[in-house]
Specification:
Blueprint lengths: L3 H8 L4 E5 L6 E4 L1 H7 L3 H6 L7 H17 L3 E8 L5 E12 L5 E10 L1 H29 L5 E4 L3 E5 L1 H7 L3 H4 L17
Antiparallel strand pairs: 1-2, 1-5, 3-4, 4-5, 6-7
Length: 193
């Protein structure tokens, strides 16, 4: 059981705190931040304690939670949790078993820590890295084949020219970009370009 002073202290923490039963994993206590973030009341939480977990992650989350409850091993999982306004944010959930003097689990103590901004930054960095690797592979391939290859966008003109173009025209890479390639277009074809 949690005293009123402990409740007050747990409500000031920047994370969502919960206590669960040892055999079933049923959540029996949460701090106010847990409820206010989700926009839930105690009866709503008791009716469906997992409704705030994103549907795409709920099954995997519950399986991992069940495994921890069954084995007594610590629980940790990244999961999206629905906010009171319907938006989902990424959280890192942890729970550990509280044991008595005979080493029997009497409660689970857990928390949800908001990691949304960090998670989004990691995803963006991974996508950027993947994009850069893909672009590097494209450039390598484009430079290995004997044909002239370039890429252009409607807004800026040429955004890539392979080594064959540079060798054929004698241009430096930077000079071929945007509309620089037009220095090597026949005057009668300029209007088409």
């Amino acid at each position: 059981s949690i005293s009123s002073s402990e409740t007050l202290m747990l409500d000031t923490l920047p994370c969502h705190v919960f206590v669960a039963l040892p055999v079933t994993g049923e959540i029996v206590w949460v701090n106010n931040r847990y409820l206010s973030y989700r926009g839930q009341t105690i009866p709503q939480l008791q009716e469906n304690p997992w409704s705030s977990i994103h549907p795409d992650e709920r099954q995997e989350y519950l399986k991992a939670w069940g495994d921890s409850i069954r084995t007594g091993q610590p629980f940790s999982k990244q999961v999206r949790i629905r906010r009171f306004d319907g938006a989902y944010r990424w959280f890192f959930t942890r729970a550990v078993a509280g044991k008595d003097t005979k080493n029997v689990i009497v409660q689970w103590y857990g928390s949800h820590m908001d990691i949304h901004d960090q998670h989004e930054a990691e995803v963006k960095a991974a996508r950027q890295e993947e994009s850069e690797a893909s672009e590097a592979n494209y450039r390598l391939l484009a430079n290995l084949i004997p044909q002239i290859i370039f890429a252009a966008s409607e807004e800026t003109g040429v955004i890539f020219a392979n080594e064959q173009w540079l060798s054929y025209t004698g241009q430096q890479y930077e000079d071929a970009l945007e509309l620089g390639f037009m220095d090597h277009v026949h005057p009668e074809d300029l209007a088409k370009c």
